Amino acid sequence: MNLQSQLSFEEFRREVLNDFRLACISREISLLGRREVLTGKAKFGIFGDGKEVAQIAMAKYFKPGDFRSGYYRDQTFAFASGIATVEQFFSQLYADPNIEHDPFSAGRQMNSHFATPNVNANGEWMNLASMKNTAADMAPTAAQMPRALGLAFASKMFREVPELKEYQHLSNEGNEVCFATIGDASTSEGHFWETMNAAGVLQVPLVVFVWDDGYGISVPRKYQTTKGSISTVMEGFRKSEGSNGFEIYNVKGWDYAGMCETFEEGIRKARETHVPVLFHVEEITQPQGHSTSGSHERYKSKERLAWEKEFDCNLKMRQWLLENALADEQILQQIEADAKNIAQEGRKKAWEKYIAPIREQVQVFLGLCQQIVEEGRGETDFVNQVMQELAANREPARRDILKAAAGILFRHPRNFSGALDELQLYYDNQLLAEKENYNTYTYAAGPNSALNVKEVPAIYADEAPSINGYEVLNKYFDQLFARHPLVFAFGEDVGKIGDVNQGFAGLQQKHGKLRIADTGIRELTIMGQGIGMALRGLRPIAEIQYLDYMLYGLQPLSDDVASLQYRTKGTQFCPIIVRTRGHRLEGIWHSGSPMGMIINSLRGMYVCVPRNMVQAAGMYNTLLLANEPALVIESLNGYRLKERLPENLHDFTVPMGIPEVLHIGSDITIVSYGSTLRIIEEAMHILGPLGISCELIDVQTLLPFDIEHSIVDSLKKTNRILFVDEDVPGGGSAFMYQQVMEVQGGYRWLDVAPRTLAAQPHRPAYGSDGDYFSKPNVEDVVKIVMEMIRE
């Protein structure tokens, strides 16, 4: 060989041996991780053994700017792409709450749940185009798929929308690929099929790797997939000349060279042409079974287990290296020995970082206990026993210290002792410290928070025109899209006809089909499309046509968006705005107000309930100045009601969590939101002449709810309170009741029992009479208020 060929060969050989070294390291990490769980140092483990070689091969083509939306067996990919280190992996396995040790979740997620930051503490988007990125992992099977569509769709927008060319820190002209990984059994989920169909229609650079190990935990593939092969059953999705669809490839999970070659071709095609790609990675093994909670020997035959040993990817790569004279036995043995040491060293460092501060706290606690014993004013025998038990614990947890302290304090409720006072102070401070570790970042703080957006009141000219509510929104969205190039809107019927209530009428023609777009009837992936775009710095307004159909899209909003800031401890943000309409209209599936369901499943998102369209516009303005996700529920029967048009439609803001007093009164406080406010106002026209003065409060947002506790100030004046909404009994009205009575201490100011007025405990019947007898009506309000006044 000439010198150049020799150098090329040596470079190739060195890369291949480094790949094998990483495969060995990752395998040792899996083996060690399982041991740490079984010995009690970690709680649970699920590992990527058997997928090492495939993930190393795919990582070769993962470039800066690309995004991963994967699942919890991608540890080797995380190592190979530089997203994670061995030490960080074990820190997460131990649930270390230090964000510097576990930068993915600060101990809040299980192992192999990776994340990379996208927004800094100043509210500025990071240079995503220069980073290798991953969306924060989730455990629900196939939940990674809907947002993968959006992550890939963003590349299409960055490539095709001229206004986005200037945002070079977010994209390199749309040349990014989204890598989605999924287990073969999880392709049975509807999430997978809806995502694949949408990606095939939209033609976006989504590359899907299906890890096929033949089982879904214990259930064989033949019970999971038609024809026993996901690539076979997806043949109808294959792209042909003149059609849309997918490119489909089949590879063996133990064939290093074959995967490198095939992955390079498919990923390059996706990157250049934006055609989505499916890689069916077959003959994957699971050397340790599904997880630490079971054994695969229980459900796999001896023949299958023997085959898995023979076709183990690391063993196959080892054989390939020997057969091709890329290494001899001695070199490979040294690599394997080094891998054990590297894994052990990373494990040891992570454990020491985790346990050291806990042991320090144990010593502080024992010192405080010793002071109690020496003072001699408490039950010293009991304190000594607590000390001995904690000192004997070789692997104490934070809760062990706090439980021990609480036990002593509960035992001495009336003991006047300086030493016990010191213990009480220590206990209180530790609870605050652990609150920071475990109970923060459900919502954002600082510049990222919508709560910190400055309020700008709406300004009305003396001759301000009164126009229909939908016209207010239409004018607002027209100004918004002209001024804000990162904003996109999409959903069913949003584009050509301008949405079913005409909020976008004529705007697609003005601002383009890419920025205001129609979608298929696919609520789940409309949410996923918005989630992925928001993770990449765009500002999507993703529409669910009617609130009743939120259930289709609720899973990704609850499991992914609402928990995102919490589970990444404020390092990853998804400022999606979900626009929908609901409350009173006609029929079982077009007049829903499932607010209790929404409030309970979307903690971490804002839930805005504007009573009219001007108020809705102000809420959109507020949300677009922050980096938090929100659901905005417009009142379905308010689009044709007249409203005065503000002069500063694009600039005024409505504060989050601040109720508005619509009518001042002295006899009773009535709390509500949305369409029901108009019912209450009608009732007030009857109550007023009867001498009953009502103070009517619009909460404006349910999440957050009355952050300044202004409602209790009204109750102090009236001493009576009624909560009204259209949800089922015990739903939204009960939430408001709990907030004011318990959180705000409103019970102290009551002269009569507080009341709630909700809809009937069933879906609303069709027609005007159905609405009247299913939801709160004017006469219901009048009757309850009069009863409360008479008490």
TrEMBL record:
What would be one Pfam family of this protein? Transket_pyr
Listed EC numbers:
1.2.4.4
- The answer to whether UniProt assigns keyword Oxidoreductase to this entry is yes
Q: Does the keyword DNA repair apply?
A: no
The stretch of residues making up the signal peptide is none
Q: Which InterPro entries match?
A: DH_E1, THDP-binding, Transketo_C/PFOR_II, Transketolase-like_Pyr-bd, Transketolase_C
Protein name per the record = 3-methyl-2-oxobutanoate dehydrogenase (2-methylpropanoyl-transferring)
- Per the UniProt entry, what species is this protein from, by scientific name? Chitinophaga chungangae
